[in-house]
Specification:
The complex is a heterodimer of chains A (about 150) and B (about 250). Chain A is an alpha+beta fold. Chain A is built from four helices and seven strands, in the order E-E-E-E-H-H-H-E-E-E-H. Chain B has two domains: about 140 residues, 3-Layer(aba) Sandwich (D-Maltodextrin-Binding Protein, domain 2); about 100 residues, D-Maltodextrin-Binding Protein, domain 2, CATH 3.40.190.10. The chains are: A alpha+beta (about 150), B alpha/beta (about 250). At the A-B interface, strand 6, strand 7 and helix 4 of A face helix 10 of B. Chain B: It comes from Marinobacterium lutimaris.
Chain lengths: ~150, ~250
């Protein structure tokens, strides 16, 4: 748990790229990333989740059934600036790997930080989706990312 | 000309004879000549692969990417329930209680086993440690990694989880596991090269059924494998994609 957490609860309207929006409960409480685990998911080319591993289910607090078929932006925390995700999509749509630090939103409103890597899945020369693998970030990288993302909001 | 078969050099020494039994069993059942060549190091094996001297390989997952995507190998089977996981270990009297307690300058004992090393380095990242701020020494075996820790020559060691578990209790109790990976989807695979792919369907049928055959069971036991299960192209591609994300 971060020293800065207040435990406060609020409701925030999250606006997604493309015009969708949803009212989300936000709890200022970090859930620690589990040691040694990788959170893995795959999406189709439009960002719809097609596969999640158990670590993803456990950390997101959603069920597997709720996750598969949902847009990956279900995890987007309002503290993450839209420009960070634009950089992600511009990179992977260009066929390149993307890596960065991401604050994710859980179903219960709490959050967790990850070091995420996203790669395009190419089969017989065609893009069939994306694989995203998250691992445990260091506290110093989280602090750097928090400071950076505040300036990009 | 016989086909050439090789095994990832990270197999347990106790299972070396098992791979020769497997080769004999395979030749009898496939009705073709296969020469088994074992290598002391991953580099020597990669040189042979790049020189086109390998037709069949029980490959480390890290090498699977190069074999499948660059050299046209195809996955036949994988060992059921046998995952490649890594552990980070410290001497029992170490001050470190968690990875985050390790500091820059830490002395690492590791092997040239590429997937264990890659996973181990990822598990050091929460402590802001990477190749630039640690002191690393490579050893030939996990026994030697353990000795380096026990002699005080290293502060932290990387082991294949199975390799650590197989150490004697006397050695193990002088060490402590700081963190253990739980990745679940990274494993070795039996891959067949372009020259041998005419035999692929027959080979797949044979190895995925060998646990139902009395002689096959004995051979599998000698390799430390319960059974081989079929591995699809997409399962292989998924594992390679995942490993790709770990290597940047």
């Amino acid at each position: 748990m971060s020293e800065k957490d207040t435990g406060s609860v609020s409701e925030v309207l999250i606006k997604y790229f493309g015009g969708d929006e949803r009212l989300a409960k936000i709890v200022d409480e970090e859930v620690p990333y589990p040691d040694g685990k990788l959170i893995v998911s795959r999406t189709d080319p439009k960002g719809i989740i097609t596969h999640v591993n158990q670590a993803f289910v456990d950390m997101s607090a959603y069920t597997r059934e709720e996750l598969v078929g949902a847009n990956h932006n279900i995890l987007r925390h309002p503290d993450m600036p839209a420009v960070a995700f634009k950089g992600l999509w511009d990179t992977v749509e260009n066929g390149e790997k993307w890596q960065g630090y991401v604050k994710n939103l859980r179903k219960d409103g709490k959050y967790y930080w990850v070091k995420a890597t996203v790669i395009p899945n190419i089969r017989q020369g065609k893009l069939v989706g994306y694989t995203s693998v998250r691992r445990k970030p260091s506290r110093s990288k989280i602090r750097e990312s928090e400071a950076l993302y505040e300036t990009l909001q | 000309m016989p086909f050439n078969f090789t095994v990832s050099p990270d197999f347990a020494p106790d299972h070396m004879s098992g791979w020769f039994y497997f080769n004999t069993w395979l030749q009898r059942n496939l009705g073709t000549d296969i020469h088994l060549e074992l290598f002391d190091s991953f580099d020597a094996q990669r040189d042979a692969i790049k020189a086109g001297q390998v037709d069949l390989i029980y490959a480390n997952p890290y090498d699977a990417s190069m074999l499948v995507r660059e050299l046209g190998f195809k996955a036949v089977a994988r060992p059921a329930g046998k995952k490649d996981e890594a552990v980070i270990v410290v001497p029992a009297n170490s001050q470190a209680e968690a990875v985050e307690d390790l500091e820059a300058g830490v002395r690492l004992a590791t092997t040239d086993d590429p997937d264990v090393h890659t996973i181990g380095m990822i598990m050091l990242e929460p402590a802001d440690l990477d190749a630039s701020n640690i002191s690393q020494k490579d050893y030939d075996t996990y026994i030697l990694v353990a000795k380096a820790l026990l002699r005080g020559e290293a502060d932290v060691g990387f082991f294949l989880k199975q390799g650590f578990d197989e150490l004697s209790d006397l050695i193990k109790k002088q060490m402590r596991v700081l963190v253990s990976s739980q990745i679940s989807v990274v494993h070795h695979a039996l891959l067949v090269g372009p020259q041998m792919q005419d035999c692929m369907a027959e080979l797949k049928a044979l190895v995925t059924q060998m646990h139902k055959d009395e002689k096959g069971i004995g051979v599998l036991e000698s390799m430390g494998i319960k059974e081989f299960e079929s591995m699809s192209t997409e399962q292989t591609e998924f594992m390679i994609d995942l490993i790709d994300t770990l290597t940047i």
